[in-house]
Design brief:
The chain is α/β, with parallel strands linked by helices. The chain has helices at about 15, 20-30, 35-40, 70-75, 80-90, 105-115, 130-145, 160-165, 170-175, 190-200, 225-235, 290-295, 315-330, 335-350, 390, 400-410, 435-450, 450-470, and strands at about 50-55, 55-60, 65, 120-125, 150-155, 185, 205-210, 240-245, 265-270, 280-285, 360-365, 365-370, 410-415, 415, 420-425. It folds into two domains: about 55-75 and about 335-470, Aspartate Aminotransferase, domain 1; about 80-330, Type I PLP-dependent aspartate aminotransferase-like (Major domain) (Aspartate Aminotransferase, domain 2, 3-Layer(aba) Sandwich), CATH 3.40.640. The chain has a seven-stranded mixed sheet with strand order 4-10-9-8-7-5-6, with helices on both faces. Strands 1-2-3-13 form a four-stranded mixed sheet. A four-stranded antiparallel sheet has the order 11-12-15-14, with helices on one face. Helix 14 packs parallel to helix 17 (about 435-450).
Length: about 475
C-alpha cells in the first residue's frame, strides 16, 4: 500500500528559530489563542527572547532584561544553569522513556527527595506538572482513607485540571466547568476555627493547603497556622497535603516552606523548580503507610500511572531534577533567598511608607508580592470607549500597567498573580545579585514617584490601541 503523500508546507526548526515578530504574531493569533495573543501584542509583551542565563534574558535585537517572573517560580537556580546543561548533555544517548525496566535516574531522584523531604515522606511518584502532582495527591489520599471529600482554602490555587480545579479558590476558573469534583469544601485561609468546623462536619480525605498562597496574591498565613492546621487534621483523621509546587525548592528561604513551622505533611506536592525549569516535571511524595494503603499490592500498584512519569520517570526530567537539587543545596540557595528576601522586603516596605499607590508588601524569602491600590473600577474604560473592561479582564488592573511600565521602560519582567490580579509578583531566581534587587527597587520607585503621569500615559496608550482596534 502506497504511503500518504503530504503536500503541506511545514515550518522547519531552522525556519522557526529565524521567525521575526510579525510571523510569530500571525501564527499565535491564527493557531493558538487569539485573545491572549492580542493582549500580549497590545501591551508590547510579545518580545522574542532568544537567549537566557542566570537572571537575564536577551531578545532578538540584543536587548537585555531582568527576569523577576522566573517561570512563576520555576527557575529558582537561574536560566540555563551550566550544571543543568552539562548533565543534559551527559545523557543525550540514553533512552529517554523505558517503562518496562527499573532505571537508575528515577530511583536516585526518588531516594534524594526522600532524604530531604520533611517528616516520613519516603514514597515518590513522578509526573509532568504541579496540577498532575495535586491530582495524584488527591487520588492517593482518597484511596488510602476511603473518604471522598476534600477541604481547601479560598483564594488557593492548585492547578486547572478537574480535581486540582475543584480544590482551587477562584470561581472565575471553576464556573465554566461545573459540576466539578463533589464533596469539596473551602474555608478562609488562615482561619483555624473555620477549618476545624469543616473537619468536624465533612470527614474529608485530606486538607490541601499552600504554605503561602502564591496565585492568591502572595498571602502568608498567621504565625503558627500551618502547625495548628496539621494538628487539627491529625485530631480528625484527615490527611494533610502540602502543596509546595510554588513555595518548594528554596523559594521562601527554606528548602520547603512547611519546614518553617516544623510541619510534617502526609503528602507533599512538587513541580516548577524541581528540574530548575529545564524540563517539565512534577512529583508527589507520601508516607509509607499511605502509599501501602492505596497502592501497596500487586493489584493496586498501577491504579495511578503516567507515560512520562509514574515510578519510572523519564531521563531528561530526572537528570535535571537531580542536578537542580544538588545546585540548590551546594549553592545554599535557601539561605540566599532568606537573606536577600529580607533585604528586598525591607526596602519595598520603605517604598510603601512613601508612595500611596503601593498598598501592601507581602512575602517570605524571594517569594514577594506588591499590592497596588485600587484606582477605581473602569480606569481603562474611561479612555477606551468602554471596550477595555470586556476585552482586558484581569489585564485591565493597575498592576498590569505597572508590569507594562517596568518592562517597556526598565526591561524588567514581572506579572500579576492569577487569583489576585491587583498583586504584582516579584520572583527573581534565588541566585539574584543584590545589585539587581536594587535596580528593580530604583525602577519601581521612579514609577511610583510619577504615579499620575505614569497612569495617564499608560492608560492613554492602551486606550489608543483599543480604540484603533475597535475602528478596524
Amino acid at each position: 500500500m502506497k504511503g500518504v503523500e503530504y503536500t503541506v508546507a511545514l515550518i522547519t526548526l531552522e525556519q522557526a528559530l529565524g521567525m521575526r515578530t510579525p510571523q510569530v504574531r500571525e501564527n499565535s493569533t491564527t493557531y493558538l489563542s487569539t485573545p491572549h495573543a492580542a493582549i500580549q501584542i497590545m501591551l508590547n509583551f510579545d518580545r522574542q527572547y532568544v537567549r537566557a542565563a542566570g537572571t537575564r534574558l536577551w531578545d532578538l535585537d540584543g536587548n537585555e532584561y531582568l527576569d523577576f517572573v522566573s517561570g512563576y517560580g520555576s527557575v529558582n537556580i537561574g536560566h540555563n544553569h551550566p550544571r543543568i546543561l552539562e548533565t543534559l548533555r551527559r545523557v543525550e544517548e540514553m533512552p529517554k522513556i523505558v517503562q518496562t525496566s527499573l532505571q537508575q535516574l528515577p530511583t536516585a531522584l526518588a531516594h534524594n527527595l526522600a532524604q530531604v523531604a520533611p517528616g516520613r515522606l519516603t514514597r515518590c511518584f513522578f509526573c509532568n506538572s504541579g496540577a498532575e502532582a495535586v491530582e495524584g495527591a488527591l487520588k492517593i489520599t482518597r484511596a488510602a482513607t476511603g473518604r471522598p471529600g476534600f477541604i481547601s482554602c479560598k483564594g488557593g490555587f492548585h492547578g486547572k485540571t478537574f480535581g486540582a480545579l475543584s480544590v482551587s479558590g477562584r470561581p472565575k476558573y471553576q464556573t465554566p466547568f461545573e459540576p466539578l469534583l463533589p464533596g469539596c469544601v473551602q474555608v478562609p485561609y488562615g482561619d483555624l476555627e473555620a477549618l476545624e468546623n469543616a473537619l468536624r462536619k465533612n470527614k474529608a480525605a485530606a486538607f490541601i493547603v499552600e504554605p503561602i498562597q502564591g496565585e492568591g496574591g502572595v498571602i502568608t498565613p498567621p504565625a503558627g497556622y500551618l502547625r495548628a492546621a496539621r494538628d487539627l487534621c491529625k485530631r480528625y483523621d484527615t490527611l494533610f497535603i502540602a502543596d509546595e509546587v510554588q513555595t518548594g525548592m528554596g523559594r521562601t528561604g527554606a528548602l520547603f516552606a512547611c519546614e518553617t513551622e516544623g510541619v510534617e505533611p502526609d503528602v507533599l506536592c512538587l513541580s516548577k523548580s524541581l528540574s530548575g525549569g529545564a524540563v517539565p516535571v512534577g512529583a508527589y511524595l507520601a508516607t509509607e503507610e499511605i502509599w501501602k494503603s492505596a497502592y501497596g499490592t500487586y493489584d493496586t500498584a498501577l491504579l495511578h500511572s503516567s507515560t512520562f512519569g509514574g515510578y519510572w520517570g523519564n531521563t531528561l526530567a530526572c537528570v535535571a531534577a537531580l542536578t537542580a537539587l544538588e545546585v540548590t543545596l551546594e549553592e545554599d540557595l535557601p539561605a540566599r533567598a532568606r537573606e536577600n528576601g529580607a533585604y528586598f522586603l525591607n526596602e519595598l516596605n520603605r517604598l510603601k511608607g512613601v508612595y500611596p499607590l503601593l498598598k501592601d508588601v507581602r512575602g517570605q524569602g524571594l517569594m514577594v508580592g506588591i499590592e497596588l491600590a485600587d484606582q477605581g473600577k473602569g480606569l481603562l474604560s474611561k479612555l477606551s470607549t468602554g471596550i477595555s473592561e470586556k476585552m482586558m479582564g484581569d489585564f485591565g488592573q493597575v498592576s498590569n500597567l505597572v508590569t507594562v511600565e517596568l518592562l517597556n521602560s526598565n526591561r524588567v519582567l514581572t506579572v500579576y498573580t492569577l487569583n489576585n490580579p491587583s498583586v504584582v509578583r516579584l520572583y527573581p531566581p534565588l541566585n539574584v545579585d543584590r545589585k539587581d534587587l536594587d535596580y528593580v527597587l530604583e525602577s519601581l520607585e521612579k514609577l511610583l514617584s510619577k504615579r499620575k503621569s505614569f497612569l495617564g500615559a499608560a492608560t492613554a496608550g492602551v486606550g489608543n490601541v483599543l480604540r484603533s482596534r475597535k475602528r478596524s
